[in-house]
Amino acid sequence: MIAGWRSVDGKKIISSISKICWILFLITLPISNFPIFPGGIGGGTLVRPLSLYPLIILLIIVILPRFISKPLPKTVLSFLPFVVVALVSSLIASLQGIESLQGVTAPERTFRALVTLGVGGAIYLLVTLWPENDEDLKLSLRWLYVGFSLALFWGTLQTIYVVHFSPRWFELLSSAQRFISIRKLFTNRISGLTYEPNWFADQISFLLLPWLLAAVLSGYTVFKWRWRWVTIELFLLGWALAILPFTFSRAGLLVMLFLVVVGLLFFRSSKKRGKGEQPGKKFPWRRIFEVVILITVLAAIIFFAGSRNDFFARIWDYWERAPNEGYVSYLINYFDYLGFGARFTYMETAFEIFDQHPILGVGLGNYVFYFNENLPDRPLAAVPEVLRLVVPESVGAKLITPKNLIIKIMAETGILGLSTFIAFIMAILGSALYLWFSPNKEVKFWGIGGLLGLIAFGLVAFSFDSFAIPNMWVVFGLITAAMRLAKKKSSSEKLVFDTTLN
Fold it and tell me: What are phi and psi of 342, to 5 degrees?
């Protein structure tokens, strides 16, 4: 009797610890560059998610026991082939005798890359497996919103000195930012709780907007409070759309605009047709009008924000000062003018590395060791960012990364790694489509959010390359968790139905 009571009491304690750590994990997701962190792995690291600390505890009390007690979802299993290819590729690369660079050896880089992949995989498993029912899923999204409300509030305070610069206000926020990130704030851009403005923009556009848009478009809310069509998600969506332009992230704004347009055109719930109306006969003028109005409002916010940042204003300034030239040269020079020249160089170099190591690539983290010898054959003076990186004596020189997840996977794990990773993405896409086609309003919400999240991933993947950034894994995990619970619920309802018939 006493032993049984202790067993039940122990389960309650573990369950409470698990829930507290899960809430802390979700709230701390926006803090991605925490100063107190075990850095220095393989030449140091910029990605330092504070959520790693509750993740470690949850890994011990949730993930590992789950491996033993229950089978893993098939979508999770589809991720394992990529992990195997990455391990094999890295193992083979470690036997190649690659020379060290800037005091960092190839085994150190490989170890760091595998650790980041392990962190990302652990986040994906945790988000997939922690929710046990629909209420857990809704609770997860609620606390995710709480964490980003804090990030948006901090970003709002930063917009004050962007709109009207005040040295005292800026210094006050910068002093507080030192406890959150290892990097100082920018005087003309907002960084939220992250390392830099682009990271904050990616968080908003990739991790937050898909679920907020899905909630508003479908009329669904994870909160108990609502007043007619006014929900907490609607307020958060407006807040996020207003704050994001002040990051001056071109990629973030592109994703934001694309998601808004696609969401309004394809995912907004249709109103019931009146009597005599036939489906598919009316042109969606109203939706197009709404898209035009919203894009106009967002463009006005972007233009106002851009007037406070000369570099960002280059997006439209070029067309006024550009010389007359051929269309192709005109477009190439435009992207160079916007600062994309370095990104194109990283991409071309990665393609050259892939061309020489097409099957398994050069191993995770080893792109940097093959960079110099595979650079495009053209002067680097026009691309100062790359020039600083390849000159060893350059002040502040750091190790090079592709800054493009797809290109990174292709160059470092070859065609096998790219194929297995795409297969994993296809499994996630299949899960999102399954949810979207559901007649259940709540399940459909997760499908809409999942599809918008995958669209965001397709755009954002070309601007980041670290497996340790939680955004991707949290989105994928929520899709997989919703799919797992929807199938579980469907199987239970079918079992009850069959039992009733018998």
Answer: -65, -40
